[in-house]
Amino acid sequence: MGYDIERFVGYVNEGLLCSICRDVLEDPLQAPCEHAFCTACIHGWLVHHSNCPEDRQVIDVSVLRPLYRYMKNDLNRLQLHCKNREYGCEMVCSLESIDRHERECEYSQIPCSNAGCTVQIERRNLDGHLAVCEYRSRECPNGCGYTILSAEDTQHNCVAELRTELELLRSEMICRVEEAKHEMESRLDSQRRHMVQKESVLQNEIEELKSQMSRVMSDVRSLMAAERQHRQELEQAELEKREL
């Protein structure tokens, strides 16, 4: 939708009006047939139609272009009242600068910044409202450190609040201790399993070494027996040699 033509001061050229909503162009686009539209208006029109609403020439979104520069300049120079005129703002400025003014206008209706408050108030009165808003928060004057809402003043009990926080901290500490305990037990179990596996591997290696040692000793005894047999045979051969 465009800008309400009733807000403008003086004459507005027909060529600066949207061909669909008939208000002053807002964020304008132009078709090849040179008819101009608000972006929102022509996009909405083309959802259900495929032609220009003025001369019925076939168009689609791809052929739409920005407004001619001279038309854009004429549009930006138009003078209009602030949208907050009904609230007391008397500002009249160019269309080019109206958005900037309205973002900062002291008569703009803005929401209260306090959580839970639904009041809409003029920007110029916001500070006064915040000073008395029932949803405003402040630090407890008794020194407990809690932030309280004005509506909760009569219900706030420092001792009860601190006791509740202490219980929460105690519960959190217990949970953390339990988590640390479980983690340590898990690590010890893992290390214990690793040590058992390592012990089993070492035991198998020891048994294998014992078996190898037994075989070596058996071979040594066999060699020693063979050596004694060989020595006896040599001695027998030496006796026979002497007898001969």
Straight-line N-to-C gap: 142 Å
What radius of gyration results from the CA coordinates? 49 Å
Continuous helix count: 5
Overall average pLDDT: 87
Return the string of H and E elements.
EEHEHEEHEEHEEH
Main structural class = mainly alpha
Q: Which residues form runs of ≥5 with pLDDT under 50? A: none
Strands of the largest sheet, in order across it?
2-1-3
| Biggest sheet layout | 3 strands, antiparallel
Keywords: Coiled coil, Ligase, Metal-binding, Zinc, Zinc-finger
Coiled coil: 192-243
Zinc finger (TRAF-type): 101-144
InterPro entries: Znf_RING, Znf_RING/FYVE/PHD, Znf_RING_CS, Znf_TRAF
List keywords for this structure.
244 residues; mainly alpha; Herpes Virus-1; 3-stranded antiparallel β-sheet; two-stranded antiparallel sheet; 5 helices; 9 strands
What does it look like?
By secondary structure, this protein is mainly alpha-helical. Among the domains are: 5-104, Zinc/RING finger domain, C3HC4 (zinc finger) (Herpes Virus-1, 2-Layer Sandwich), CATH 3.30.40; 109-149, Herpes Virus-1 (2-Layer Sandwich), CATH 3.30.40. Helices cover 50% and strands 11% of the residues. It has five helices and nine strands; from the N terminus they run E-E-H-E-H-E-E-H-E-E-H-E-E-H. The chain has a three-stranded antiparallel β-sheet. The chain is elongated and about 160 Å long. The model has no long low-confidence stretch (mean pLDDT 87). Pfam families: zf-C3HC4_2, zf-TRAF.
